[in-house]
Design a protein that fits this description.
The structure holds 2 protein chains of 2 kinds. By secondary structure, chain A is α+β, with helices and mostly antiparallel strands. Chain A has helices spanning 5-15, 24-28, 52-65, 115-124, 140-146, 153-156, 159-162, 199-202, 259-272, 283-290, 294-302, 324-340, 348-364, 388-397, 399-408, 443-462, 476-479, 486-497; strands at residues 20-21, 45-47, 68-71, 87-90, 98-101, 106-109, 127-128, 163-169, 175-178, 214-221, 223-224, 233-236, 239-242, 249-255, 277-282, 312-319, 344-345, 379-386, 421-426, 431-438. Chain A folds into 4 domains: 5-90, 2-Layer Sandwich (Uridine Diphospho-n-acetylenolpyruvylglucosamine Reductase, domain 2); 98-224, 2-Layer Sandwich (Uridine Diphospho-n-acetylenolpyruvylglucosamine Reductase, domain 3); 237-462, 3-Layer(aba) Sandwich (Vanillyl-alcohol Oxidase, Chain A, domain 3); 470-515, no CATH class. Helices cover 35% and strands 19% of the residues of chain A. In chain A, the strands form 5 sheets. Chain A has a 7-stranded antiparallel sheet with strand order 17-14-16-15-19-20-18. Chain A has a 5-stranded antiparallel sheet with strand order 5-6-10-8-9. In chain A, strands 1-2-4-3 form a 4-stranded mixed sheet. In chain A, strand 19 (421-426) and strand 20 form a beta hairpin. The longest helix of chain A is centred in the C-terminal third of the chain and has 20 residues, at 443-462. Chain A starts with a helix and ends in an 18-residue tail after the last helix. By secondary structure, chain B is of the alpha+beta class. Chain B has 3 domains: 2-102, 2-Layer Sandwich (Uridine Diphospho-n-acetylenolpyruvylglucosamine Reductase, domain 2), CATH 3.30.43; 109-241, 2-Layer Sandwich (Uridine Diphospho-n-acetylenolpyruvylglucosamine Reductase, domain 3), CATH 3.30.465; 245-454, FAD-linked oxidases, C-terminal domain (Vanillyl-alcohol Oxidase, Chain A, domain 3), CATH 3.40.462.10. The two termini of chain B are 32 Å apart. The chains are: A alpha+beta, B alpha+beta. Chains A and B meet through strand 9, helix 8, strand 11, helix 9 and helix 12 of A and strand 11, helix 6, helix 10, helix 13 and helix 14 of B. The complex binds flavin-adenine dinucleotide.
């Protein structure tokens, strides 16, 4: 359906003529993303509202005139792409305000504030924030309401833990406020309640992918940061270096003979409650993050730089937010633990080389887009989310199958030799998350990645391994019946709050296909 | 007339049937319908009118609970799950009668997982049972302040009691849950969802992740719902290592402003574990019950505001960790001219006693809140610490208007998440047998709550009158809650009339 003149006029009326576009050239930019499936689709129009009230009006109009709405952040993920005709897209570029309550360590952001902007402002005030593993260039708000896993998880947890009060336009256009802002004089400092915590309604392990209206403001926790007010970055992109003050920050890469050993060490570090950043990278991460161009990536590959030498590594950083003595104490405990578990430190000079290139990345997650280096595509295969031991099991259970498949199709999928994996601890190792991903080289590779992805999903399901990727349409219909029929509740929630099915259908579940 | 008669007959049949069917599910010995016994069992310490169920049933497993809830749906009978043997805020009163689903028999510790620092416990496990068992494993819970031993551990977290350790960025200890929804379906949240049953999960799974399944965080919706959505059967909770060495300080002050300023400073440096403020009344109650010293004498010796702060070291070089954190503590104290003390002037052994009881359930009789006058009315809410002095001034102004004696007003401030927010609590001690005093306290409670709300206090846990105060002001929020409840409990049998 093409938007009628009445609808176009009404939409222009809401956002202003200048902030409405249905120019095909402009729309082209909103027609595809490069994650997951090779999806393409054009919206009918793009709108740039300025305020929550304007967003409410757009949703009200959508209900009246039966068009669909997709709220978008920085347009990174495939669920931003229209699946059918008659969608309008809300691009929040004009909703970009950021407030920081320095004393009480929280920030309030509108949808177009990026992690980079938030962190820059927070650091000036002696604070820092959770940053998504998707990178610092994305929308803080979109990430928090959509997913929320990142390299900061060891201390700050998943984004769910950082989310405070929020303001949410329901698909009907009503404005739902959650948390402390339900008392207008209380501010945004608290997320739960009153009573049941409705943050849980609008966001789960992933969010509703735009299928339940649009969040227009969210508050998030900030954390103490005693590091420099701006990161001491030198050099020119793509090779930027960062020398963090050595009396405050200690960066290490430590090698271990087996993945299980790395995990054992992370448990021990968590038990000792030391360290600021802690994660486990396989060798493909180094290849992607450290290559300065696509050519160099393949050079690294050919010469097997990193590939053999950094197979399973602990990446760890001590952050001195308390005092120099704290740093000395944590360093002593860290070294003792590494020795006990048979870890091998890199030679000092080499460790320094890595520190200058990667330590800042643990703080600001800037290089993540290099995971797309091969061809500008990225395909998450599966996730595990429970204990660290489970994360490893999830990774290893189908590793042979994936490695064999990728080797066979190495022309269209980058051959990571099973090393495209990341295990991340959360909450001082109380929880762990493993993620394996593939880097397709072309559209064929993307389709192949999808095929193997589906195979391992089914294999995990049959063997009840509890990996989690099947939570959006269409795989939610396979996973749901095996898992307490959770898809029926998701369906009911979507149906209750989006009765006319106007908010980014078919996500997360298609109302037109009954459960 | 005929119709009414028919209705009566129908109800009679339902009642007979209901009782028989409940007996069949839980066994004769696990159902109570004697009003006297029911009154004995429903111990609620609030001043709200007591409303009783018609039956109390004691199921012992998930499937019995499911059958009971299915039965309640069939006959449209209200159900309230109850996991603690006591309640403080009227959260388990049966406004519409019905069945109390008493989970006392479901008191198993299903798992103590040292590697993942988590425990999985049934809803009936209470504070009196768990602490010593965890100690044997070198573990402890981040727990509320001196909880009642008969209070369920799981519901303390579900009801979001504030926790005494302000450290830990993640701060929320709850993991996955198993529940029976109001519609009678079994459901598991987070990593417990499946595929398959919990006992089919890989051994490496400890059900520690609460998030999801899918696009909603069901555990969050259930948390704070006060039994209006489902009955929780078990849950996973994070535990932490017990410090091998601890060092406790009292930091006392005449001025709440100065103390608040100091707490901001120490929390920003991320030091210490337990960190909370008690006024002289609350601290004197706690100390006098343990030190056999007279309450009034201790109260007079104490400064009006007392920060209790514990620094701890784990198994590796605990002395070194404590030493550098102490150094920071003293450096910051100097800046605001406060002096951390190991002992309280004029009171012997306070340090040792508090350290002994700080991670324990309350063991003495009576419970500390009932020590002074037999009953206590709590008013608590969340705010940011910079607003605490203003709240304190206004609350005291209001209580003075009621001629409520200053030396009967306890207060407790709990910094949360490195001082990012705080729980502020006022304890009004009163004699519940004195009708006049009771009525006086009821009016005071109403008016003080209004003052707090108007100043921007956030009642995240809406008990008693707070429900009305909040939901009447937020139609869309209340509406969304109601619609959400009906998704899981379409016949509104779970604790009807409580919120809606
Ligand atoms: C290479 C790559 C790596 C990734 N790694 C991670 C990772 O490590 N951790 C992680 O958390 N995520 C990761 N993601 C997933 C995801 O892209 C991000 O979580 C994030 O949402 C992207 O931010 P964005 O601003 O581009 O959001 P968008 O892609 O614009 O939006 C994401 C979804 O949220 C919806 N949405 C956007 N704004 C709103 C709003 N205001 N209200 C309601 N719904 C809204 C959209 O409709 C869309 O469905 C990764 C994605 C890629 C491509």
């Amino acid at each position: 359906m093409v938007l009628s003149n009445i609808v176009i006029a009404a939409l222009k009326n809401v956002v202003g003529e200048k902030w409405f576009s249905n120019d095909p050239v402009i729309l082209q930019a909103y027609s595809r993303t490069r994650t997951g499936l090779p999806i393409e689709g054009f919206p009918e129009a793009v709108l740039l509202p300025k305020s929550t009230e304007e967003v409410q009006d757009i949703f009200r109009l959508a209900n009246r005139y039966s068009f669909r709405v997709i709220p978008v952040g920085s347009f990174y993920f495939m669920t931003c792409v229209p699946m059918k005709p008659d969608y309008v897209l809300i691009d929040p570029k004009r909703m970009d305000k950021l407030w920081i309550d320095e004393k009480n360590m929280y920030a309030v952001v509108e949808p177009y504030v990026t992690f980079a902007q938030l962190q820059t402002e927070a650091m000036k005030r002696g604070l820092s924030c959770y940053i998504s593993g998707a990178g610092s260039q994305i929308s803080v708000l979109a990430n928090m309401v959509f997913q929320g896993a990142g390299l900061h998880g060891y201390r700050y947890g998943l984004a769910n833990r950082c989310m405070l009060a929020l303001e949410w336009v329901l698909p009907t256009g009503e404005l739902l406020q959650i948390g402390s802002i339900t008392n207008p004089k209380a501010g945004y400092f608290w997320g739960e309640g009153p009573g049941p915590d409705l943050r849980g309604l609008v966001k789960g392990i992933w969010g509703y992918a735009g299928g339940l209206g649009m969040c227009t403001k969210v508050a998030l926790k900030l954390f103490p940061w005693a590091g420099p007010k701006t990161l001491p970055i030198t050099g020119i992109s793509p090779e930027k270096l960062c020398k963090l003050p050595s009396e405050q920050f200690k960066f290490y890469i430590v090698k271990f003979p087996t993945l299980q050993k790395v995990i054992d060490v992370i448990y021990e570090l968590g038990h000792a409650e030391i360290g600021g950043k802690c994660t486990c990278w396989a060798s493909a991460w180094y290849v992607f993050l450290l290559s300065l161009s696509k050519e160099q990536l393949f050079d690294f590959d050919e010469q097997r730089i990193f590939k053999d030498s950094l197979k399973r590594t602990l990446v760890f950083m001590i952050e001195g937010h308390k005092s120099k003595k704290q740093v000395a104490y944590e360093e002593k405990v860290f070294k003792e633990i590494i020795e006990e578990y048979g870890g091998v430190f890199l030679p000092e000079e080499i460790n320094k080389w890595f520190a200058e290139r990667l330590s800042a990345e643990l703080i600001r997650s800037n290089l993540i887009t290099r995971l797309w280096r091969v061809s500008g595509m990225f395909h998450p295969l599966k996730l595990g989310m429970d204990t660290l031991d489970h994360a490893v099991e999830i990774h290893q259970s189908t590793l042979k199958m994936v490695t064999k498949y990728v080797a066979k199709h190495s022309k269209s999928i980058y051959n990571d030799e099973g090393e495209g994996m990341w295990v991340n601890p959360y909450d001082l190792a109380h929880e762990g998350h493993a993620e394996s991903a593939l880097a397709p080289a072309d559209v064929k590779g993307q389709q192949r990645a999808q095929t193997i992805g589906l195979q391992i999903f089914m294999d995990d399901l049959q063997n009840k391994r509890r990996s989690i990727l099947g939570i959006l349409e269409p795989v939610i219909r396979i996973f749901g019946p095996t898992a307490c029929n959770f898809h029926k509740y998701i369906y009911a929630i979507k149906k209750t709050f989006d009765p006319n099915n106007i908010s980014n259908p078919p996500y997360p579940i298609d109302l037109e296909n009954e459960v | 007339m005929k119709n009414i008669k028919n209705e009566f007959e129908k109800n009679d049949i339902i009642e007979k049937n209901l009782k028989q069917k409940l007996q069949k599910i839980v066994g004769n010995e696990n159902i109570i319908d004697d009003p006297n016994k029911i009154e004995e069992i429903l111990v609620d310490y609030s001043f709200f009118p007591k409303r009783y169920p018609q039956y109390i049933v004691f199921p012992q497993n998930l499937h019995e609970i499911q059958k009971i809830i299915q039965l309640a749906n069939k006959y449209n009978i209200p159900i309230i799950p109850r996991s603690s043997e006591i309640s403080f805020y009227g959260e388990s009163l049966h406004r519409q009668g019905g069945i109390m689903l008493n989970l006392k028999r479901m008191n198993k510790i299903l798992d103590i997982n040292e590697r993942n620092r988590s425990i999985r416990i049934q809803a009936g496990v209470n504070w009196g049972m768990i602490i010593d068992i965890l100690k044997e494993h070198g573990l402890r819970l981040n727990m509320p302040l001196f909880p009642h031993p008969k209070k369920s551990v799981l519901t303390s977290y579900l009801e979001r009691y504030p926790l005494v350790i302000a450290t830990y960025e993640y701060s929320e200890p709850l993991g996955a849950l198993e529940v029976v929804m109001g519609n009678g379906a079994i459901f598991r949240t987070g990593s417990a969802v499946g595929p398959g049953e919990p006992d089919e999960a890989p051994e490496t799974v400890a059900f520690v992740d609460p998030t999801g399944p899918g696009s909603s965080d069901f555990y969050r919706i259930i948390q704070g719902a006060q039994g209006t959505i489902c009955a929780v059967t078990w849950g996973t909770i994070k535990v932490e290592a017990i410090p091998s060495l601890q060092s406790l300080y009292f930091i006392s002050s005449e001025s709440l402003e100065i103390l608040v300023d100091f707490i901001y400073k120490i929390q920003r440096r991320m030091i210490g574990y337990e960190c909370f403020v008690l006024n002289n009344i609350d601290l004197a109650i706690i100390l006098s019950q343990h030190l056999s010293q007279e309450f009034k004498k201790i109260m007079r010796e104490l400064a009006p505001w007392n920060l209790i702060f514990v620094i701890g070291g784990l198994k590796r070089y605990p002395e070194e960790k404590i030493a550098y954190e102490e150094e920071i503590l003293f450096e910051l104290a100097k800046q605001v001219k406060l002096s951390p003390q190991k002992e309280l002037p004029g009171i012997i052994n306070a340090n040792q006693e508090i350290l002994k009881i700080i991670g324990e359930a309350w063991k003495k009789e009576p419970y500390w809140k009932f020590f002074l006058k037999g009953a206590c009315c709590d008013i608590f809410f969340l705010t940011t610490m910079n607003k605490v002095p203003e709240f304190d001034r206004e609350v005291r102004k209001k209580t003075q208007q009621f001629n409520y004696p200053d030396d009967l007003l306890g207060s407790y401030m709990q910094p949360i998440e490195y001082g990012r927010a705080c729980h502020l609590e006022y304890n009004f001690f009163y004699d519940s047998k004195n009708n006049q005093e009771l009525q006086h306290i009821q009016s005071l409670y109403r008016e003080v709550s209004e003052v707090i709300y108007d100043l921007g206090g956030f009642f995240s846990r809406p008990y008693g009158l707070w429900k009305e105060m909040i939901f009447s002001r937020h139609k869309i929020y209340a509406d969304t809650l109601k619609k959400t409840k009906l998704i899981f409990d379409p016949q509104n049998i779970m604790h009807p009339g409580h919120f809606f």
